[in-house]
Amino acid sequence: MSYKHLFSRSLGAAPGRLHVAAHSHHLWPDASFAGQVECWDDAARLADRKWERVMGELWPEAQAEVAAELRTGQPGSIVFAGNTHDFIVRLWAAAPRRAGTPLRVLTTSGEFHSARRQFARWAESGDIRLEVLPPEPHDTLAGRLAERAGEADLIMVSQLMFGTGRMVPGLDALASVAAPDGPWVVIDGYHSFMAVPEPLGALGRSCFFLAGGYKYAMSGEGIGLMHCPPGFGPRPPITGWYAEFEDLTLPPGQVGYAPDAMRFMGATFDPSALYRFLHIRRMLAGEGLSTARISAHVDALKQRLAAGLAGTVLDTAELLDPPSGPARFLALRHARAPEWQAALLAQDCITDVRGDVLRIGLGLYHDDEDVDRVVALAKTLD
């Protein structure tokens, strides 16, 4: 089955390119173009009044879509921002900490750069006290974090590790220790949102969840999202005017907050990503494409690719996660990974490399023919 017709603009823009980095920059479907145009048209047609449509119609529709994908039943617990780093800063400021001490952060060495770099800098400046655990073995990671939870104010862990493609099981052990007065548990779901069916569910009662549109939501940059468990951080210190709420019980002059996830809001933002996201969600619904169905499509391609690479030089690499795993990419560890990535790039085959790991990512816009092209190129590597 091929769904390339849904991506005619992106594929047609570079017809010779073989883009197998859907896990990195997922190509945009045609529906996103329609969303971008509608955003522009609304701005021209409505001018100042566009915000009534954005916040009154599109925002709650997008919240409902995210809550449905997460299976939390809590659309009011969803808030959007330009990127997830913005939320990391707000969470750092809002998380409870012991009086007179820096925030105690517990995380892993497998987190994405927006968290890794920021935590390292805060540790360098003394703004946090940082403890970092190795992510491997993944099967014991949640338990190891839970054992150290008593020494932390904020715990951050990826649900699916971007470097290895491995899922972290047992996150309910962390959820059970999360509390409004600490520790807070933040699940980075950037590689599980719209890639793993029902990635949050009951975990959302006590865990934050971060994700965005850049990967498998297919809607590009400019849309970070956060699920905020009720009762956690009612008055975030970093706050914009969109979070304002007139609580008549407050003393005069005190800063008010919305009671739902809007309490973590910032200020004026570019709404175009919301338009793109909603147009894509409507497209998927119209095509009958759930996350489970897309994953099944990608899983078949991953298994075809893994089988095809047998006997090629890429077969000498360590496959970090089986093709049947939930990741939308194959992660191949080898000292020559950067060399292979460069050689493939020279032939207009786009993969990516993270250290000594070559990642080949597949998505809805790929079919068997694309996999066979990757295999043919792999056979030219020495």
Automatic annotation (TrEMBL):
Keyword terms, alphabetized: Lyase
GO MF terms, alphabetically ordered: lyase activity
Protein name as catalogued: Selenocysteine lyase/cysteine desulfurase
